[in-house]
Design brief:
This protein has 194 residues and is α+β, with helices and mostly antiparallel strands. Helices cover 34% and strands 30% of the residues. It has 4 helices and 10 strands, in the order βββαβαβββββαβα. The longest helix is centred in the C-terminal third of the chain and has 20 residues. The two termini are 15 Å apart.
């Protein structure tokens, strides 16, 4: 349950490897806040994650953030394979200080993002906070998952973004864990997921 992705465009050059069942992580995106978010994403999801990325960050962090979302989504899709034996659904209600974040995922082959997260500040350090939604939209599209994220309460922008990444990783971990009641069965009556 692992995958490697290498994506090169005129704007970014990204190598990403993912292991769903743990291991070490190394994150180097050239964007400090994104490094922090991906590091805690890997830790809270118990994922082995390596990201080595270069991009046109002299413009801003938009391209590299979106393209890493694309690569991470594709890596999850590839690592899951035919999806036999996974739980498929995962959700969490995650508290972090004054923030309460709801996140639910369905690893069922339908790409959809339901995003109801009000972010009070346009920036955290040098990071444009609107890039959270861009990252998630790219991730969902390539992972082919249904993701709903809703901020129930919260006022600190850093806490909100951090809670979003933590909630996503923990909900994914629950969705991708083996379902002992179904064994290696596909978690769908259609006979196909992805």
């Amino acid at each position: 349950r692992s995958a490697e992705i290498h994506r090169t465009t005129n704007e970014t050059d990204i190598f990403l490897s993912l292991g769903l069942d743990g291991g070490s992580s190394e994150i180097q995106t050239g964007v400090g806040f994104l490094d922090h978010m991906l590091t805690l994403f890997a830790h809270h999801g118990c994922f082995a994650l390596t990201v080595r990325a270069r991009g046109d960050t002299q413009v801003d962090a938009h391209h590299i953030t979106e393209d890493i979302g694309l690569c991470l989504g594709r890596a999850f899709r590839d690592a899951v394979g035919d999806a036999c034996g996974i739980s498929r659904y995962g959700d969490i209600l995650l508290p972090m200080d004054e923030v309460l974040m709801l996140c639910a995922v369905d690893f069922g082959g339908r790409a959809y993002l339901g995003f109801d997260v009000r972010i009070p500040s346009p920036r955290v350090g040098d990071f444009d906070t609107e890039l959270l939604e861009e990252f998630l939209r790219a991730f969902v599209r390539e992972a082919a998952i249904n993701l709903h994220m809703r901020l129930l309460t919260g006022s600190n922008t850093h806490h909100i973004l951090e809670a979003a990444f933590k909630a996503l990783s923990r909900a994914l971990r629950r969705a991708l864990r083996p379902d002992p009641e179904r064994g290696d069965a596909l978690p769908s009556t259609k006979g196909v997921l992805l």
